[in-house]
Amino acid sequence: MTDNLQTPRHEEGGAFCVAALYHFARFPRFESFRAELDAVARENGIKGTLLLAAEGINGTIAGTDEGIARILAFIRSQPEFSGLVHKESRAAKMPFLRMKVRLKKEIVTMGVENIDPNKIVGTYVEPKDWNALISDPETIVIDTRNDYETAIGIFKGAIDPNIKTFREFPDWMRNNPGLHNKPKLAMYCTGGIRCEKSTAFAKEMGFDEVYHLKGGILKYLEEVPAEESLWDGACFVFDERVSITHGLKQGEHTLCHACRYPLTAEEVTSPKFEEGVSCPHCYDSRTEADRDRYRQRQMQIALAKKRGEKHIGS
């Protein structure tokens, strides 16, 4: 492992550094790399999830500043990932329970064969230039995220496809001929990875001027001042923080551990909310037997917490 470390630059906002990363590359040795990467993560106290596939690496991890610097240096020491770019934010407590390195068919699952961002992709737009693009009346702006993500935040004027999973996005594109009514398509997602594939797919469909937000919403919220922002709401993140806002500060949302939906403070006061059991979004779709099962799990979580332990299913 290289010792040429670039230690994350700030301690403000929490003791833990959270690093979101992805890199598309031809990586046929991904299976054999798994054990080595997992060992380096554990040696440095890193927790989170990293996905490996023949098309590259993707994930979000957290740890001390030194630990994150070391694992990033190790990943970049692989020839395939020397150009990897990551995004940092802070967390007051460790936002993940354990470390997972998983092997996948795709590092972000779109389900369309032969979509290769290394061959064709949309034009990257820096956060400082994004407002001008999406304010242009000749631009159609599309949020490529899932419905539970868009529910708590979206760019002003953006189209929400209202999809449950990213696998649904290609069919949504195919079934919306009106997207051809304007010359420019601008797409965005949390950290940029879904747009690598969505813009590649749009180019394959014949769209000419296709753009995406470089670094995703995370980079925009980090770099664009709140007073200049066209972002409305909070950004869902896939860890225990649940959401973040401008300046990458932790948001006020909590998570329903029954359906994984982000909840506002008002929704937590609903009679349909019971911690770890139900919320207004899932109450009517669950049976009482489901809720009894969730209550048992929540009881185990509470007992583990009382013992000063973390329950694996929390």
Describe this structure in words.
The protein is an alpha/beta fold and 314 residues long. It folds into three domains: 16-103, Alpha-Beta Plaits, CATH 3.30.70; 123-233, 3-Layer(aba) Sandwich (Oxidized Rhodanese, domain 1); 253-313, no CATH class. 28% of the residues lie in helices and 22% in strands. It has helices at residues 30-43, 65-76, 127-135, 147-150, 169-174, 193-204, 216-223, 265-268, 288-306; strands at residues 16-24, 47-53, 56-63, 85-91, 99-103, 123-125, 139-143, 153-155, 184-188, 209-213, 231-233, 235-236, 243-244, 254-255, 262-263. The strands form five sheets. It has a five-stranded mixed β-sheet with strand order 4-1-3-2-5. Strands 6-10-9-7 form a four-stranded parallel β-sheet. Strands 8-11 form a two-stranded antiparallel ribbon. The protein is globular, with a radius of gyration of 20 Å. It starts with 15 loop residues before the first strand and ends in an 8-residue tail after the last helix. Mean pLDDT is 93; it is low at 1-11. Residues 135-229 form the Rhodanese domain.
